[in-house]
Design a protein that fits this description.
The structure holds 3 protein chains of 3 kinds. Chain A has 15 helices and no strands. Chain A is mainly α. Chain C is of the alpha+beta class. Chain C contains 4 helices and 16 strands. The chains are: A mainly alpha, B alpha+beta, C alpha+beta.
């Protein structure tokens, strides 16, 4: 298999995952923006969305003020913004197009149909009532893509590189949300959060589609910050948690090692990262610094990605 | 213009035998059936990404080539005659290429003036003295043929560089078999779907002499922004070989390798779909970022086979075209079975004055142009257009050739106002390796605008499935 | 005459190249006037180089190497035995049809002002007389001056300046001869000046096909046909086609620095 093919499949999957994550961030932003502006801290919600999407700097370069319509356009349609949903899906599809011989027809057609439908949507179409429907559609297209991958691709190198891209991106996304919002989750004198706190915690969970799952899992209708953090970082049951992502990354790397008969640095790095997550306890993390822990994780994740690229001769 | 030849016949005259079933079928289907079929076919193409980019448009624009559902049909006998002429022509072209890059006997014999070869931009001096496997240069040729009467065919041009369109031929047939399976039950249509297998066989047969075991073949593409990228990916997939970009390949210790996720893998045969000029920055355009430095050295030393060979453009250059009948006679000792279109070389004073006097009746083309751009179709042009072109022609006559406007045959085609005759051409695909293989049929291109003679997809042309009936 | 040659090209890179490919035209050709006694090329990767003789009769090395240091040296050295043939080049293995050497390239193509001179310089009774006339006129008109032209300068540019180096003289000579219908080729090699002396002497000249004689060398820079002091290396359509070292690398975007050192001397017998 060509190194470039592996790279394109990896990035195709990363970008499809990224589109879904961006849609979730926008959902949260939109939801909060509908709440009464009187609640303290919510006026900055769109800035917070830009921050979580790592688009704050590029947005400020282009726009003077933060207005919902502009933010939405910037994060969905603006093709000068490489992280907009349109740019991200275009990049995913271009990567897929370059290696379409390595994809099943279902995988390719799912992504191609997404693109063809997306180019037909205009910014002006997305009035407030239609935005949620559109974002739901983006998530569904990403899920259709993942379903096609899981359901039709041979468990060969192509598949494993796709999984690597998917879960390196997911881990990065969850970690970034935590990184931006960590201060909300820091322990407070009182265990019981205010109305505002509850909203903020809910919003973190929503940005990874986990607010309902949380309640089921902890059998608790109150959000508690250290449990929210634990849920997103250390719970193997939670499919967008850091530890869950790293299990998949390790499984995929193991699959490659079996095919190639060889293990490399990237295998060791990924195994270490997973072991560290599994051994971690929330109280220790809070003691030694939540922020530092997440920063270290983001760096480790980036290093794993770079090691994969180098090991498998990505161009 | 003489009377138009309608390949189906019918109307007041007799329906020509190959089209009897088609005519009957057309009576049974309604326009809603047709609309639905067309939509289905186009959806199918769009879903699979069978699109082409139009140069000059936004890179995002990917268009479908319109597909017409009424097939174009040849009888077995018609096809036998045609393919004999095509094979003769392609064999002669390969013999010509070998000679031009070796002893140049045809020049010594005075059949072609030397400057037309050696001063030609399409002549590649690096190819002099190179001995490609089996002496084949143009392994894949797309011969553009038009018909004007029952037994009158003309070759418009020989595409010897990187002819494209074969994927439309294959996918068009797939779509037809899917949409109208009954048609294929009624008649025996020669299959085309083995083209990728035959292409692979051809490529394997021209592996370098030193290649042990099964040769490794790759398709080399300029990348996803090339207008024919879909076809590159399609052929690689159908042949089961890697689709490479220049950056995937590199030369090491006298051999060609591809970068894989594991150890580099040796490559023996490159089916390249990039132009000569971009193949190797050490030999040609030094700023080519899509080529492979040192590739031409490997090729000259016989370590790798490049398909088609560099320098084959000299055989399909429009300034050489007029000599092709001589070329065929010179190398085969036979009279050409397929005719050339009579052509005036505007570089010659007598011809130029004739052309200038008769612009309204002629088609004038650039010697080095392609894609239907930069040409004048006299009979369909306005007075002003003709006068504008006259001025251009006068400033650089040797850049042009002129041909009579051929009354291209028509085939029934679905249009907005029902079934109507539209002009067509034909591009059969010819493979040369251990033997010459011609896929029955080829790509029929159809000018969808009423009266138009320009079939190029970039100029509003479409395609049709092409049938060769079996005896 | 026995001539000893030492031709070194030294590259310095800003970053270590991860990959390097080089095409070398660095081996003298044998013909009736010249025989190689010993010759050796050394550079990274030379042990596995691809070597082949091209259609023009040149011996080419294609060298590849991975993960190089910050410097790379290409060294060609050895001894060649020459004899005076009055400029005649016979006994060379070349399969190129003569007419190919009528082809102009971007570097040799005469412009209007060269063509104007050609009317006068080229109007001679025989090809031989024309060749001598071209050589003489070029020698007089285009001054030998280092630094006025670059390696990618065209014949027309050098002629407009009326100055250049041996490469420009040779491009002018072959370009003019070709437009007069005389097949001609661009030749690279070495020149030893003066008995016992050593010199900086990578050189270039032209060879023209003269009816009844065959290929004859003409050196417009020195206004003479090659003698036993000349060592012939490669021939082609222009300087670009037979550049001694042509390469491409991965790793680092900055241009490399290159220094060339050529020593040519008469060997002790």
């Amino acid at each position: 298999m060509l190194g470039r093919t592996a790279s394109s499949i990896y990035w195709m999957s990363r970008y499809m995952e990224r589109a879904e994550n961006m849609a979730r961030l926008l959902e949260v932003g939109h939801r909060i923006s509908l709440m009464p502006g009187a609640i303290e801290g919510h006026r900055d919600e769109w800035r917070s969305t830009l921050l979580s999407a790592a688009c704050e700097v590029s947005y400020d370069e282009k726009h003077k003020d933060i207005v919902a319509a502009k933010v939405i356009d910037f994060l969905i349609f603006d093709e000068t913004n490489p992280s907009s949903i349109k740019s991200v899906i275009r990049t995913a599809r271009n990567n897929g197009r370059a290696v379409r011989t390595a994809l099943t027809r279902d995988v390719w057609e799912s992504m191609n149909a997404t693109w063809n439908e997306l180019v037909a949507v205009k910014s002006s179409d997305l009035t407030a009532d239609r935005l949620p429907v559109f974002l739901e559609w983006v998530k569904q297209r990403s899920m259709s893509f993942r379903g096609a991958v899981l359901g039709t691709m041979l468990r060969n190198e192509n598949y494993y590189f796709s999984q690597l891209g998917n879960f390196v991106e997911r881990a990065d996304n969850t970690a970034r949300i935590l990184d931006v919002k960590y201060f909300i989750l820091l322990p407070k004198p009182s265990d019981v959060g205010s109305e505002v706190d509850m909203q903020q915690w809910a919003q973190i969970l929503r940005s990874v589609s986990a607010h309902r799952a949380y309640r089921w899992f902890y059998r608790d209708s109150h959000y508690r910050p250290w449990l929210v953090a634990e849920f997103l970082m250390l719970r193997e049951e939670m499919p967008r948690s850091l530890v869950f992502s790293y299990q998949w990354i390790n499984t995929a790397l193991e699959g490659l090692a079996q095919i190639h008969g060889k293990r490399y640095d990237c295998h060791d790095l990924a195994a270490q990262t997973l072991a560290k997550l599994r051994a971690a306890k929330m109280e220790n993390i809070f003691q030694s610094g939540l922020h530092e822990y997440i920063r270290d994780f983001v760096i480790a994740n980036t290093n794993v990605s770079a090691a994969i690229a180098q090991t498998y001769n990505f161009p | 213009m003489s009377e138009l030849f309608n390949e189906m016949g019918g109307g007041k005259g007799q329906t020509r035998p190959p089209y009897v079933d088609i005519e009957a079928w057309l009576k049974t289907i309604s326009s809603t059936d047709v609309e639905r079929a067309k939509r289905e076919a186009e959806n199918r193409f769009r879903r699979q990404g069978i699109t082409f980019a139009v140069y000059g448009d936004d890179a995002a624009t990917e268009r479908l080539i319109p597909f017409d559902i009424i097939p174009r049909v040849f009888s077995a006998l018609e096809w036998r005659r045609l393919s004999a002429g095509i094979e003769q022509r392609v064999r002669a072209l390969n013999a010509f290429l070998h000679d031009i890059y070796h002893r140049q006997e045809i020049i010594r014999a005075g059949r072609i003036p030397h400057h037309i070869i050696t001063q030609n931009a399409a002549f590649v001096p690096e190819m002099v003295g190179v001995n490609p496997a089996r002496g084949i240069y143009a392994h894949i040729v797309g011969v553009d043929i038009v018909r004007v009467a029952e037994n009158e065919f003309y070759v418009l041009e020989d595409n010897c560089r990187t002819p494209s369109g074969v994927s439309y031929m294959l996918e068009g047939r797939e779509a037809m078999m899917h949409l109208f399976p009954d048609l294929f039950v009624q008649q025996r249509v020669a299959p085309v779907d083995n083209y990728p297998a035959l292409l692979r066989k051809t490529l394997e047969s021209v592996a370098p002499a030193g290649c042990m075991g099964e040769p490794t073949i790759v398709v080399l593409t300029p990348g996803i922004h090339n207008s024919a990228f879909f076809e590159h990916a399609f052929l690689a997939d159908e042949m089961g070989v890697e689709l490479c970009e220049g950056g995937d390949l590199f030369v090491s210790d006298g051999a060609l390798y591809m970068r894989t996720t594991q150890a580099p893998q040796r490559v023996d045969v490159i089916y390249r779909r990039i132009d000569d000029a971009y193949l190797d920055p050490l030999s040609f355009k030094p700023d080519s970022a899509i080529g492979i430095p040192g590739l031409v050295d490997l090729y000259r030393a016989g370590r790798v086979t490049i398909v088609n060979a560099p320098g084959t453009g000299i055989a399909d250059d429009k300034s050489i075209y007029t000599y092709i009948p001589d070329v065929i006679e010179f190398y085969t000792g036979e009279k050409p079975l397929l005719k050339n279109v009579p052509t005036w070389r505007c570089s010659e004073a007598d011809s130029l004055s004739y052309v200038l006097d008769n612009l309204a009746e002629l088609v004038v083309k650039e010697v080095h142009g392609s894609g239907g751009y930069g040409m004048l179709v006299g009979p369909t042009s306005s007075k002003q257009e003709i006068e504008n072109f006259r001025a251009i022609l006068k400033t650089n006559p040797s850049n042009y050739i002129a041909q009579p406007t051929l009354a291209l045959s028509t085939v029934p085609t679905y249009t907005a106002s029902g079934v109507a005759p539209r002009h067509v051409d034909l591009r059969p695909f010819v493979l040369s390796g251990d033997q010459v293989r011609i896929t029955p049929g080829g790509l029929t291109r159809v000018a969808l605008k009423e009266g138009s003679l320009v079939v190029n997809s970039s100029q509003g042309g479409g395609t049709k499935d092409t049938w060769v009936l079996e005896d | 005459m026995r001539i000893r040659i030492h031709h070194q090209t030294h590259y310095r890179y800003a970053e270590r190249p991860s990959y390097l490919v080089q095409r070398l035209h660095l081996t003298p050709t044998n013909f009736d006037g010249q025989k190689t006694i010993d010759w050796k090329i050394s550079t990274a990767g030379i042990e596995n180089a691809l070597s082949y003789v091209d259609g023009f009769g040149n011996l080419i090395h294609l060298v590849t190497a991975h993960n190089l240091p910050l410097e790379n040296i290409v060294l060609a050295e050895g001894e060649v035995e020459t004899k005076d043939t009055a400029g005649l080049v016979t006994g060379l293995i070349s399969n190129v049809p003569d007419t190919v050497f009528l082809r102009q390239t971007l570097l040799t193509m005469p412009d209007a002002s060269i063509s104007a001179e050609l009317m006068q310089w080229g109007d001679k009774a025989s090809a031989l007389a024309t060749a001598h006339s071209l050589m003489g006129h070029l020698h007089e008109t285009v001054a030998y001056e280092v630094g006025t032209t670059q390696t990618n300068s065209t014949a027309a540019e050098a002629f407009a300046r009326r100055s250049g180096v041996c490469q420009d003289h040779s491009h002018l000579m072959v370009g003019m001869a070709r437009s007069l219908g005389i097949p001609s080729r661009y030749v690279t090699g070495y020149l030893v000046t003066g008995a016992g002396a050593s010199s900086v002497a990578a050189h270039a000249w032209a060879e023209l096909l003269i009816p009844d004689l065959g290929w004859v060398g003409f050196d417009a820079t020195n206004c003479q046909s090659p003698t036993e002091q000349y060592v012939r290396v490669a021939a082609g359509l222009d300087a670009m086609a037979v550049a001694p070292v042509k390469g491409s690398r991965r790793g680092g975007t900055e241009a490399e620095q290159m220094t060339v050192e050529v020593r040519v001397e008469i060997a002790q017998q």
